[in-house]
Every structure is written in structure tokens, then in C-alpha cells.
């Protein structure tokens, strides 16, 4: 092919026929989608394979010697002896415990952070008070502090309070606010019509009631989006739970996955078990994505172009 | 307006109720952001082992002097920079290409969703997934490499590949997200600009260089800053896959901080390392402010 003069005219759909340039564009896009999505198929395929058949059928597109053993191992349905026979480490995996911990950690922090951040955002957007912008800038400035920097002193604080390896210690730093949540909700509240509030004000409603009965219901959509983003972020959190919740009783799924990986024998890791655990850990996010994909996708432009 | 009267209670001030609304967030902010920031800086000037019961002992700049002579620190800095550079180049180039493709041939939400899928996964999951796919013996990627006729690659096991591999995993996870940010920027460019350029007989290449790129500048700067700041803080994938190895090949700064503070219980040294990371990121943010001054005006 000669180095042709690229004459594609921006995005105007004038000649809509399928020329070769369009075909190349679609091929590249399809390739990117394949690279993004196909690894998940490979995880599923591995999880449904029998460990011992993997090595001999490493490039087989279908599960090698189809087996649900990996999932049984993850859910703790196999005896240790059977697990070892199928390539597991034999160490018990408290999957249900980790799942419960993940749910408590993620659920509590999401609900509290979204609620308290909305309250603060309301004060920053709709109430008049001295120092409002200064305090808001200060809050926003914390977005610049790298999490590991505050994680060290926060670890000491939680340790001194005797809250290491407790759910309370795990959730505490996330409970009251996140700078992003305040920023996100404030943007919405700034654009809300003042008339609703003023009408309620004439009726003698106090701010507290206005917030609960008028503002929050009107903000249902952005709150749902924020809750979704916060939930997924918290579900995927690794560093803080690794520091504070390394015990079985407080171990969340991400940390559990790391432990599962490090437990598997160096020479012949339990690949199918590891992939089954990975898949199951990703499941809540996958389900949320299937249900609210459009909302999640549309929230992405928010960061970049306000 | 009322700068003449410093009194707290003015007729239209909602200070009282505002404090109630801000109180929980303020508590969280002070306890878990403000105080730890100050304390972290203080700790960086102390010798403090979390194993002993002794209090932090003030040692002045001793930690920083030790860091300046610490080959592991300089190695970590170099390794992190390598990771950052690969990420910036790969991620920005691929994302820009993807955004242009989406903008021209397909704006469908399903396609955007598919590209976003890796970004929604935990770092730990991305790490494990690729740890399996890139396995030297039976990983599918090495199968394909061999099938093409090239020698197998020890992605996690060789010093030259450890960091590029981490960067590739991160690029895979963030490519779609970055593309969506740029895509949003493309959508914001008014069509008339392109039409005018078309009437003037500009070629596609000229249009891209003279119109698209300059108008995308704020978004591109934002993308670069997000990528750089995120890349400097890589931890999860390293912790799950190579744990800094082989030898020191993938011991990035954040992993080194983690090791000093939590494996070797040397909190003073770890804090000083964290301060340095903080300063690097502040510098990046400062450069951002300079570039994005125009966007800072919405603090009303």
C-alpha cells in the first residue's frame, strides 16, 4: 500500500460507504475491544478447567478437561485432601468470610461517605458562610496528598487506638468524606435551581428539612452515580486493607486473593483455583456494570470536562 | 461585601447550620487527612521503630541524608521513572488513537463500556489475570509468541522485562478510561471549527495538528497529570506479582516505602521516603496548575 494522502474528513458522515479506511478503523477498534474483553474469557476458561489438564492444553480455547473443582475449592466445598489432589495448597480459603468483610467494608464506607460528603457539599454549594471557599479549597487540596503518605500516620493512629484488625479500624478513614465525593456533589448542587429551596423556605421549612425532603430526592441521580463509583473503588481497595485488615477476621477479597496467590506452590500454582477466585471477586463489579453500565460510562467525562 | 464587620453573625449568614452540615466531613478531614499530613512530616525527622515501645526520637535530617546515599532509593526512583515514562507514552498514544477512532466510527455506549471494563477491575485482579496469561511455561501470551516464532519472554522473571510488564498491565487497565476522557474532550470541540477548516482545504493531518491537538490541550494535560500521579504510586500490581524482584528490578518507590515502614518497621525512614514522593507529586501538580490556570476559576 502506498503512503496515501490521508483525506478522511473528520467525523462528518458524508460518504457513509464502507471504504478501506473505515474497515481499518473498525479493525483497530475491534482489536482494542478484544484486548480489553478477551482476558476475562480466558479467566473463565481457566477457572472451568482442571488444573492438571492446563499444562498440556495451554492454548486450547475451550476449558481443558471441564471441571467445577476450582469453584468448589474457592467456596470451600472441597476437603483439604481433595483440594491438594487437584492442585490447591490445601490451606483453607475463608472465601465467605472475605466476601462478608468486603461487603461490610465497602457497604459501610460507601453509604457513610456519600451521605456525609453530600451534606458537606450542600453547605459548600448552597449555604452562605464566611470561610466557605477557603475550607473547600483546603478539602480539595487533600486530593493532592498521596494516599500512602497519610496511610503511615493513619496506621499508627488506628494501631494506638487498638483498632488494628477490626472492621472499625478498616472503615474509619473512609467513613466521613472523600474529597472527590464532596467535589462531585458540589458540582451538582451548584447547578440546582434555587426556586425549589426558596418556595420551601417561605413555607417555613428549615435547612435540615429542605436537605432531606427536597435536595436529596432531587439529587437521586448523581447520588446513585457517586455511590456506584465509590462502591467500585472501595471494593477494589487493596493497600489500606492490607495494612490494617490482614487477619482472617478482617481480610477483604482483594487481600485474600493476594494471600491465595502467595500460598499456591511456586512450581505449579493452582491456576484454575486462582482464576476462579479472581472471577468470583470481580463478580459484584461485573454485575453492577451489567446493570448500570451506561451510567458508569457517562460519568467518566465528568472528571475531564466539566 | 461585609469585610468591614468581622462579626460572625451577619444577617444572611448560615454559619451555624453550615457547621452542622460540614461537621462530619470536617472531623474526617482533620483526623485522617490534616493531622496525618503534619504527623507524617514530623515522623520523617525522627527515628521511630514500631517494634520497640519507645517514642519517636528527633534526629533532624538524618533520614534524608541517609536516603540521599541509599542505593535502593535511587534504584527505586529510577525504576519508578521508567514505569512512569512507559505508561505516559503508551497510554496517551493508545488512548488518543482509540478516542479518535471512537469519535469517527463509533460512539456507541457498548463499545465505550467494553473498553472501560478493565478499568473497573481491582489492580489485584488485573495483576493476577496477567500473571496467569503471561506465565512463562503455559501462559497464553507466551504460547502465541512461540507460535509466531519468537522466543518466550520471562515477563515477570527477567530484570529487563519486570517494569515494562507492570507498565503494560497498567496500560491495559487504564487505556479505555483515558480514551474516554480524551473522547469527552473531542466531543466538546464544536463541529463548525472542522467545517471551516474543511472549506479552507486543510488536510486531515493539518486539521489534527492545527485544530484537534491544540483544542484538546487542557484534556491532554489533565490526562498526563492523572497518568503521572497515578503511575508514581504504583503498588498493588507489584505487591501481588513480582514483589520488587527479580533482585531490585521492580522495587518501585511506593513498594520500597511499604517495605521500610511495614516489613522493617522503620517508620521514620518510610515517612521520609513518603515525603519525597509527596514532593515529587506536588511538583507534578504545580506544573498542572501552570498549564490549566484557566480551569481554576470555578471556585465562585
TrEMBL record, chain A:
ABC transmembrane type-1 domain mapped to chain residues: 99-292
Gene3D superfamilies: MetI-like (1.10.3720.10)
Keywords: Cell membrane, Membrane, Transmembrane, Transmembrane helix, Transport
Highest taxon above the source species: Bacteria
Topology in the lipid bilayer: Multi-pass membrane protein
Annotated transmembrane regions: 23-44, 103-124, 136-156, 168-189, 210-232, 271-292
Localization of this protein: Cell membrane
Classification via Pfam families: BPD_transp_1 (PF00528)
Signal sequence region: none
Matching InterPro entries: MetI-like, MetI-like_sf
PROSITE patterns assigned: ABC_TM1 (PS50928)
Similarity field: Belongs to the binding-protein-dependent transport system permease family.
Name of the protein in its database record: Carbohydrate ABC transporter permease
Organism: Sinomonas terrae
Lineage: Bacteria, Bacillati, Actinomycetota, Actinomycetes, Micrococcales
UniProtKB/TrEMBL annotation, chain B:
Signal peptide residue numbers: none
UniProt cross-references to Pfam families, sorted A to Z: BPD_transp_1
Membrane protein topology class: Multi-pass membrane protein
CDD domains per record: TM_PBP2 (cd06261)
Superkingdom to which the source organism belongs: Bacteria
Localization annotation: Cell membrane
UniProt xrefs under Gene3D superfamilies: MetI-like
All residue ranges annotated as the ABC transmembrane type-1 domain in the record: 77-288
Transmembrane segments: 15-35, 83-102, 114-133, 215-235, 267-287
Keywords linked to the UniProt accession: Cell membrane, Membrane, Transmembrane, Transmembrane helix, Transport
Record family assignment: Belongs to the binding-protein-dependent transport system permease family.
Name the UniProt record assigns to this protein: Sugar ABC transporter permease
Organism of derivation: Sinomonas terrae
Amino acid at each position: 500500500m502506498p503512503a496515501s494522502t490521508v483525506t478522511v474528513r473528520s467525523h462528518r458522515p458524508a460518504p457513509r460507504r464502507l471504504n478501506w479506511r473505515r474497515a481499518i478503523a473498525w479493525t483497530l477498534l475491534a482489536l482494542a475491544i478484544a484486548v480489553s474483553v478477551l482476558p476475562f474469557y480466558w479467566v473463565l476458561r481457566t477457572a472451568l478447567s482442571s488444573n492438571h489438564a492446563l499444562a498440556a492444553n495451554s492454548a486450547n480455547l475451550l476449558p481443558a478437561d471441564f471441571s467445577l473443582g476450582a469453584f468448589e475449592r474457592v467456596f470451600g466445598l472441597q476437603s483439604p485432601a481433595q483440594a491438594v489432589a487437584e492442585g490447591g495448597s490445601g490451606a483453607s480459603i475463608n472465601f465467605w468470610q472475605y466476601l462478608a468483610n468486603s461487603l461490610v467494608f465497602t457497604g459501610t464506607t460507601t453509604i457513610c461517605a456519600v451521605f456525609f460528603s453530600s451534606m458537606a457539599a450542600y453547605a459548600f454549594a448552597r449555604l452562605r458562610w464566611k470561610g466557605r471557599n477557603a475550607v473547600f479549597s483546603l478539602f480539595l487540596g487533600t486530593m493532592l496528598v498521596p494516599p500512602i503518605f497519610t496511610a503511615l500516620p493513619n496506621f499508627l493512629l488506628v494501631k494506638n487506638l487498638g483498632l488494628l484488625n477490626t472492621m472499625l479500624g478498616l472503615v474509619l478513614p473512609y467513613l466521613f468524606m472523600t474529597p472527590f465525593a464532596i467535589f462531585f456533589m458540589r458540582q451538582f448542587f451548584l447547578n440546582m435551581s434555587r426556586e425549589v429551596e426558596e418556595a420551601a423556605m417561605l413555607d417555613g421549612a428549615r435547612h435540615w428539612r429542605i436537605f432531606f425532603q427536597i435536595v436529596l430526592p432531587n439529587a437521586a441521580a448523581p447520588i446513585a452515580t457517586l455511590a456506584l463509583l465509590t462502591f467500585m473503588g472501595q471494593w477494589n481497595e487493596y493497600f489500606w486493607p492490607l495494612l490494617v485488615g490482614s487477619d482472617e477476621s478482617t481480610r477483604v477479597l482483594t487481600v485474600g486473593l493476594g494471600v491465595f496467590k502467595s500460598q499456591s506452590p511456586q512450581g505449579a500454582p493452582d491456576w484454575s483455583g486462582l482464576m476462579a477466585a479472581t472471577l468470583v471477586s470481580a463478580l459484584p463489579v461485573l454485575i453492577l456494570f451489567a446493570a448500570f453500565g451506561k451510567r458508569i460510562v457517562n460519568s467518566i467525562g465528568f472528571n475531564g470536562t466539566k | 461585601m461585609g469585610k468591614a464587620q468581622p462579626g460572625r453573625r451577619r444577617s444572611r449568614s448560615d454559619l451555624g447550620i453550615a457547621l452542622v452540615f460540614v461537621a462530619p466531613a470536617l472531623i474526617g478531614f482533620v483526623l485522617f487527612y490534616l493531622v496525618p499530613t503534619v504527623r507524617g512530616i514530623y515522623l520523617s525527622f525522627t527515628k521511630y521503630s514500631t517494634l520497640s515501645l519507645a517514642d519517636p526520637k528527633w534526629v533532624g535530617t538524618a533520614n534524608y541524608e541517609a536516603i540521599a546515599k541509599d542505593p535502593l532509593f535511587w534504584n527505586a526512583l529510577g525504576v519508578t521513572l521508567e514505569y512512569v515514562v512507559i505508561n505516559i507514552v503508551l497510554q496517551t498514544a493508545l488512548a488518543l488513537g482509540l478516542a479518535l477512532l471512537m469519535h469517527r466510527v463509533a460512539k456507541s455506549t457498548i463499545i465505550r463500556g467494553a473498553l472501560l471494563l478493565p478499568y473497573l477491575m481491582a489492580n489485584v485482579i488485573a495483576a493476577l489475570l496477567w500473571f496467569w496469561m503471561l506465565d512463562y511455561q503455559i501462559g497464553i501470551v507466551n504460547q502465541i509468541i512461540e507460535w509466531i516464532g519468537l522466543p518466550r519472554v520471562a515477563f515477570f522473571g527477567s530484570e529487563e522485562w519486570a517494569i515494562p510488564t507492570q507498565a503494560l498491565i497498567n496500560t491495559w487497565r487504564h487505556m479505555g478510561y483515558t480514551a474516554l476522557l480524551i473522547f469527552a474532550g473531542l466531543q466538546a470541540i464544536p463541529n463548525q471549527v472542522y467545517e471551516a477548516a474543511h472549506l479552507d482545504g486543510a488536510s486531515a493531518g493539518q486539521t489534527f495538528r492545527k485544530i484537534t491537538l491544540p483544542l484538546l490541550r487542557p484534556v491532554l494535560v489533565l490526562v498526563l497529570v492523572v497518568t503521572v500521579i497515578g503511575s508514581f504510586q504504583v503498588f498493588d500490581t507489584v505487591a501481588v506479582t513480582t514483589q520488587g524482584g527479580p533482585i531490585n528490578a521492580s522495587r518501585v518507590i511506593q513498594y520500597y516505602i511499604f517495605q521500610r515502614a511495614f516489613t522493617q518497621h522503620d517508620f521514620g525512614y518510610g515517612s521520609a521516603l513518603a515525603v519525597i514522593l509527596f514532593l515529587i507529586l506536588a511538583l507534578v501538580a504545580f506544573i498542572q496548575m501552570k498549564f490549566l490556570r484557566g480551569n481554576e476559576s470555578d471556585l465562585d
